[in-house]
Amino acid sequence: MHQAVNSDKVPAAVGPYSHGSEVGGLIFTSGQLPIDAATGEMPAGAAGQTRQSLENVRRTLEAAGSSLDKVVKTTVYLKNMEDFGAVNEAYASFFREPFPARSCFEVARLPKEALVEIEVIAEK
User: What is its EC number (predicted)?
Assistant: First the structure.
């Protein structure tokens, strides 16, 4: 049985889902858009959106009693693979070695016309 994870420090879900789920000692976050919960706005550019998405991931993990240090896998969705370098630079400031495993995909479109969306799997 899984337990829903939600935080009032993360923007409300844009659909019928939780910010994350906890099951078997693992936290699975939903894809976190780069929306600032305080303003409802998205930063300009892929680097700023990466930082905001990861801040939302961090807050979701904290609501579940976990942290970025416990992330074992990330998935990054990009609107444009041309932003890969800028995303990597911003992403690297949130993680240290040993880095989590990661997949990165270019997608046709993201909700709210975002440039970046990130989801993770972390240990509790």
Answer: 3.5.-.-
Residues in the chain: 124
Residue the block writes with tokens 């609501």: 63
Q: Please tell me what DSSP assigns to residue 108.
A: S
pTM for the whole structure: 0.96
Tokens found for residue 81 = 């693979």
pLDDT digits (tens, 9 = 90+) for 25-77: 999 999 999 999 999 999 999 999 999 999 999 999 999 999 999 999 999 99
* CA–CA distance, 109 with 20 (Å, rounded to integer): 22
In contact, 51 and 91? CB cutoff 8 Å: no
**What is the CATH T-level fold of the domain 3-123, as seen in this structure?**
60s Ribosomal Protein L30; Chain: A; (3.30.1330)
Active site residues: 104
Residue 39: CB atoms within 10 Å:
9
Domain boundaries, the chain: 3-123
